[in-house]
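Methods — Computational structure assignment.
A single polypeptide chain was analysed. Its primary sequence is given first, followed by the predicted tertiary structure written as structure tokens.
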Amino acid sequence: MESLHSLTSKEGETVFRPVIYLLIALAAWTVYSRYEQQQAASLRDSEPVLSEPEPPEAPEAAAPSAPNPLFKCDGRTHCSQMTSCKEAKFFLKNCPDTKMDGDNDGVPCERQLCNVNKRP
């Protein structure tokens, strides 16, 4: 027969193990939340590199395109930071150091936002 002490120890371990896992998960979630808030704040606070696209050198035959006040370069470089294909195209065309066109074909975020069906 097992002693009373060994039964108590096993039961206590069984009861506290989920509590310990829960505390570890809570701590990890708290750290991640703070990190995410800091990242969002640093993106908001970073100065824009370019507020509007530069006008073309020579006038085009078509009507001139108006500057797009909806978007501005703010340090974002990845597809996961974009909200639309139009925004991703603006960033690719006007902002430095973007990482949204892996195959360098001029179409950004092909898998996430700008779904382009390529057929050979």
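Note: Residues 60-64 have pLDDT under 50 and may be disordered.
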